[in-house]
C-alpha cells in the first residue's frame, strides 16, 4: 500500500482577510475533493491571510495508482488556479 501526498503552496494576492482567503480555499478544496475523491486539508498558513499550504492525500495498492491520481490533481490545480500557485511537491510513503 502506498500513500501519496501532494502539497500545494498557494498565494492569494487579492485576499484582504483570513475570511476572504478561506472562501478561495473552500472552493478549491471542494472542487478537488469532488473531482478526484481524495482528502484535502490546509496544513499550514491558517493564520495568514494571503498564504496557505494544502495537502492532497490518496492511498493506492501500488505507487503507480497514487502517482496517476496525484498527477491528475496537479494538472487540474495548475490549469484551474495558475495565478495562486507558488510551488507543488509530491511524496510517497510505502506502508
Quick overview of this protein structure:
Helices cover 39% and strands 38% of the residues. With 95 residues, the protein is an alpha+beta fold.
What does this protein structure show overall?
With 95 residues, the chain is an alpha+beta fold. The protein has one domain: Alpha-Beta Plaits, CATH 3.30.70.1120. Helix content is 39%, strand content 38%. The chain contains 2 helices and 4 strands; from the N terminus they run βαββαβ. The protein has a 4-stranded antiparallel sheet with strand order 2-3-1-4, with helices on one face. The N and C termini lie close together (5 Å).
Task: Give descriptors for this structure.
95 residues; alpha+beta; Alpha-Beta Plaits; 4 strands; 38% strand; elongated; DUF503 domain-containing protein; DUF503; TT1725-like_sf
How much is the radius of gyration in Å? Answer: 13 Å
Q: How far apart are the first and last residues' alpha carbons, in Å?
A: 5 Å
Average per-residue pLDDT, rounded, comes to 96
Tell me which CATH architecture applies here.
2-Layer Sandwich
CATH homologous superfamily - what is it? TT1725-like
Order of helices and strands: EHEEHE
What amount of the residues lies in strands?
35-45%
The residue ranges in which pLDDT falls below 50 over 5 or more consecutive positions are: none
Number of domains: 1
**Got a strand count?**
4
What does the main sheet amount to?
Answer: 4 strands, antiparallel
Amino acid at each position: 500500500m502506498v500513500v501519496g501526498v501532494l502539497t500545494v503552496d498557494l498565494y492569494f494576492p487579492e485576499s484582504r482577510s483570513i475570511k476572504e482567503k478561506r472562501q478561495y480555499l473552500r472552493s478549491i478544496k471542494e472542487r478537488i475533493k469532488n473531482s478526484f475523491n481524495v482528502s484535502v486539508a490546509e496544513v499550514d498558513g491558517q493564520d495568514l491571510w494571503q498564504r496557505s499550504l494544502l495537502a492532497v492525500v490518496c492511498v493506492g495498492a501500488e505507487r503507480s495508482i497514487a502517482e496517476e491520481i496525484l498527477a491528475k490533481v496537479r494538472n487540474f490545480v495548475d490549469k484551474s488556479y495558475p495565478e495562486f500557485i507558488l510551488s507543488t511537491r509530491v511524496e510517497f510513503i510505502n506502508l
